[in-house]
Fold this sequence. Notes:
The chain is of the alpha+beta class. Strand 24 (621-627) and strand 25 (630-638) form a beta hairpin.
Amino acid sequence: MAKKKKIDIDVLDMTCAGCANTVERALKDAEGVEDARVNIATERALVTFDPTKIKTKALVDKIRGSGYDAAVERTVLPIGGMHCVACANRVEKALNDTEGVVSANVNLATERAVVEYIPDTNTPERIKQAVAETGYSVLEEKAEEANEEEVDPEIEKMRTARRRMWLAWAFTVPIIVLMLLHMVAGIAWPSPMGVEAILVLLALPVLAGPGRVTFRSAWRAVIHGSANMDTLIAMGTTASWVSGPVSFVAPLSSYAGVSAMIMAIHLTGRYIESRAKGRASQAIRKLLHLGAKTARVLVDGQEYEISVDQITVDDVMVVRPGEKIPTDGVVIEGQSAVDESIATGESMPVPKEAGDEVIGATINQTGLLHVKATRVGSATFLSQVIRLVEEAQGTKVPIQAFADRVTSIFVPAILVIAVFTLLLWIFFSGPLTDLLLRAETILPWIDANPSTATLALAATISVLVIACPCALGLATPTALMVGSGMGAQNGILIRHGSAIQNLRNVKVIVLDKTGTLTKGKPNVTDIVSMNGDEEWLLQMAASAEVGSEHPIGQAIVESAESRGLSLETPTDFKAVQGRGISSQIDGHLVLVGTPTLLQNAGVTTDQGQETLTRLRSEAKTTVMVSVDGELAGLLAVADPLKEETSQVIEALHDLGIKTTMLTGDNEQTAHAIAQKAGIDDVIANVLPEGKVNVIRQLQKERGLVAMVGDGINDAPALTQADIGLAIGTGTDIAIEAADITLVRGDLWAIVSAVKLARATFRKIEQNLFWAFFYNLIMIPLAILGLLHPVLAELAMASSSITVVSNANLLRRANIRAHN
């Protein structure tokens, strides 16, 4: 079976949720596409596809075929080793087959390849690899000095929107002045007819100039058989402006000046919206700028400063106090404290010494460190975080499904309603005019005196410009953008938007014991020898456990080594999963494990049962040791609870969440630990492969279940749970296994994640309520003629701005679990 691929594509020219739905449908209809999600807030498509059935170019063609465009980058690469046309053709074919490449042309004469590709962190590397696999190479060119710093696309987009807005108002303000003089002061200079002519002429540059982008978007949608928000604005402003020239020859009031006001307000709304969206998406931009730009590498005892892009695995980097660590690595010399707040959200510096791992972009504070690079480029922790946040922002929350169904039919429905409004006023003008006469005494903007044709036109224009699918389309993704960004800054990496909704609703959290509730570093606390020789017992058990990967075995070995005992190398080592081990030590058969392991081997354990019960009641994991078929003694190992465990469990209870501990320990030990931690329920004696079945059973009994584990050993159970939370530290995180990864090693991150999910979902609910409420109230008012077209456009622009601004207010939420 072909491996599925995922790709993020920036989609250009989308202006509303209707645009996003059009692109999404086009991608989903393509053969080989498994799933496609288009996010209007991030203006990005996340596509899952089968690369054997469809290529990147076809995906881009689908987007372009739907009337929009995809953001691509172009690079010119010098190719080394080509000698003939066949060489060029081979390289060109390989590049065109490369994931992420839209098109490639190789010129033999210039020995260069011009490649267009979807910009992401991996594509340049894939391009170079594709060339290398054909037997050729991408030559390095000396980069020219840039005269100007590259402008952030979001900033450039805001600048463009601002220019359009001010240009529109430059013509619209004189229109407003002329209209007020005429309406309020009765001044019509040079004449009533002249005023109308001036309004028509002043409005035209607004529509044809800064408003051109709106008409272009509308036209692109129409010629591809769809309609979007700009289609409604274009129709409304066109009808308004046309009424001006028509008013010279027919009994129709002119709305030419109103058309400019509608467009100016629309462009103002677009500018404010782009600023708000820019704030919502700033988390990614902050992450992108966190990394160091240069690094000092040590070569033959000499320091050389190079670009971070030139670092390779195993390079030794010199990091002085106050400098950023260039890339992920391991300390090989020196001691210091490192500020890892960008990765974990925790402000306290972390001590580092030889052998400790460090994360790229974190800040070395006090001492000189020599760090050996272990991960570079897209494999670094920071790159993984950026990819994860981008992917989360491209996903959808289940509650958004209904809003998506509405927005997919919204614009066509509004067009039908606009026609219905026009006909309604033509055939039922009497009752509607009576309504306006009564409302005229209450609402100052209503004028019931114009002709029926004028009132019908005004109502129709109001319907067209007040309908707002954008508010519905932006309600969820903007809140998700802010929430996932806040999470990344606090060490909470959200992989799927659905995890926010599920975690918000979860009532039961299952916690793995070892490494999650406990420190994951067990120590030998009791040695009970049947012959009184504790060192002999520990020496035999530790020798049998040499090489064991189990935490209990490692604890026994470390305890023996700390006492200076010499250990033998075991032979015929056998591990019995969930039970223990057996080994041969100098001809002696040694068993270390549960009573069941010894009993199955014919060893009598009655002599140690009383001691076993006592040690287990003290929350100690106890193993029995037999030598040559006789019980030799017992070893008790305790993995102490993390300091914050009981407080975190109490905090989860305060949030209305029940807790369950999942462990392979026996019932007695497990219940003793659970009682100490304050955990509600215990499921003990669970082998690793049995965790998935336990989660399934809990889902049947209790509904939504969240599972917290170390993200590696618990991967299957994390995947089975409705919400999997992997808890880890730094570069050890397993982000692929869980829906949410908690970078910090402490349990308070669980409480923070729940608070973040609830705060984010509250904003989503508020936004969706406002978006639906706005349309349900405003559209009927527009049909009845109770809204002037200018007020309708003001309300429409305000609706989108409101939901985006409300999403940004999420930043004020207090998700800190403790002080």
